């Protein structure tokens, strides 16, 4: 049985004070929720504030990116050890905004995944096709390529610790959500790929989140699909009320 995970990606939003206030309010609203895992990924500068505000709550803290080296002359970068020091349990890897706006490629994403895993962080590998790729009927080829390259050289034990987020680029921040059926189709394809490449145990245990304009009004339809195990949420995670409504989708 895969426990659902609802994760919020705050991108480049919220100061420390805003982080503290939002997380306190979120805690008041969701309380001891046990049936769903809850994760918030604030910007780096707000991680210490997030850690303090989330202490003693069910809210876990993650980061939006990491560097693959332990330390060194990498101006502007943040290491896995630094994230752990700030209370992170998870880290997003290969978000489409990193791929598109900051030139991240599958080889770098692979190194980041390996670093996260060897540091005991849980990586959330983001994959997804552009509108152009969908229209050219290349969805399967694109996603399989991202998985193949991103997961290169990982052991079966490491594979069992990763989470995948399917985020069609055309649905991120656009208000266009994939229908539950479209999302389910791709999630089933991803699970099938894991079964073929690794094992049915790896495929059954894999949590696959959907991301792309998930809102309180569409979350239950998505979560009702057999291969959708959670959501990665941008815009609707910024307000405590809407994120609380998302994580309480079963209630
Ligand atoms: C995201 O940033 O991963 C995302 C899915 O954003 P939004 O929910 O705003 O589409």
Question: How would you describe the overall organization of this protein?
Answer:
This protein has a single domain, classed as Aldolase class I (TIM Barrel, Alpha-Beta Barrel). It has helices at residues 16-30, 47-54, 80-85, 96-101, 106-118, 131-135, 139-150, 156-159, 180-197, 200-205, 219-223, 240-247, and strands spanning 5-9, 37-41, 59-63, 90-93, 122-127, 163-166, 207-211, 230-233. The protein is built from 12 helices and 8 strands. Helix 1 (16-30) links the parallel strand 1 and strand 2 (37-41). It has 251 residues and is of the alpha/beta class. Helix 1 packs parallel to helix 2 and helix 7 (139-150) crosses helix 9. It binds phosphoenolpyruvate.
Write the layout of secondary structure elements.
Layout: E1 5-9, H1 16-30, E2 37-41, H2 47-54, E3 59-63, H3 80-85, E4 90-93, H4 96-101, H5 106-118, E5 122-127, H6 131-135, H7 139-150, H8 156-159, E6 163-166, H9 180-197, H10 200-205, E7 207-211, H11 219-223, E8 230-233, H12 240-247
Parallel strand pairs: 1-2, 1-8, 2-3, 3-4, 4-5, 5-6, 6-7, 7-8
Helix pairs in contact: 1-2, 1-12, 7-9
What key attributes describe this structure?
alpha/beta; 42% helix; 251 residues; 15% strand; eight-stranded parallel beta barrel; binds phosphoenolpyruvate; single chain; 12 helices; TIM Barrel
Residue stretches low in confidence (pLDDT < 50, at least 5 long) are none
Largest sheet: 8 strands, parallel, barrel
User: What integer is the average pLDDT?
Assistant: 97
Strand content: 15-25%
The CATH topology: TIM Barrel
- Which structural class do you get from the secondary structure elements? alpha/beta
Helix content: 40-55%
Q: What sequence of helices (H) and strands (E) makes up the elements?
A: EHEHEHEHHEHHHEHHEHEH
Q: Number of domains in the coordinates?
A: 1
Distance separating the two termini = 19 Å
Radius of gyration: 17 Å
Ligand species: phosphoenolpyruvate
Number of strands: 8
CATH-defined architecture: Alpha-Beta Barrel
Number of helices: 12
Biggest sheet, strands in spatial order?
1-2-3-4-5-6-7-8
CATH C-level class is Alpha Beta
């Amino acid at each position: 049985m895969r426990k659902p995970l609802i994760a919020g990606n705050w991108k480049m939003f919220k100061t420390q004070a805003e982080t503290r206030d939002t997380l306190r309010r979120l805690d008041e609203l969701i309380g001891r929720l046990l049936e769903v895992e809850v994760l918030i990924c604030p910007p780096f500068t707000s991680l210490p504030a997030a850690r303090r505000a989330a202490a003693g709550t069910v809210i876990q803290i993650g980061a939006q990116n990491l560097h693959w080296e332990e330390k060194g002359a990498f101006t502007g970068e943040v290491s896995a050890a630094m994230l752990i020091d700030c209370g992170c349990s998870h880290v997003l890897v290969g978000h489409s905004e990193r791929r598109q706006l900051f030139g991240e490629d599958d080889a770098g994403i692979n190194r980041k995944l390996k670093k996260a895993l060897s540091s005991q962080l849980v990586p959330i590998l983001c994959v997804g096709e552009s509108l152009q790729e969908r229209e050219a009927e290349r969805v399967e080829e694109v996603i399989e390529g991202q998985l193949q390259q991103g997961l290169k050289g990982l052991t079966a034990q490491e594979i069992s610790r990763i989470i995948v987020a399917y985020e069609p680029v055309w649905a991120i921040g656009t208000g266009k959500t994939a229908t539950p059926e479209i999302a389910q189709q791709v999630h089933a394809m991803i699970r099938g790929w894991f079964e073929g490449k690794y094992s049915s145990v790896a495929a059954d245990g894999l949590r696959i989140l959907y991301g792309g304009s998930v809102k309180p009004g569409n979350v239950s339809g998505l979560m009702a699909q057999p291969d959708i195990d959670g959501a990665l949420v941008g815009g609707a995670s910024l307000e405590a009320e809407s994120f609380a409504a998302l994580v309480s989708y079963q209630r």
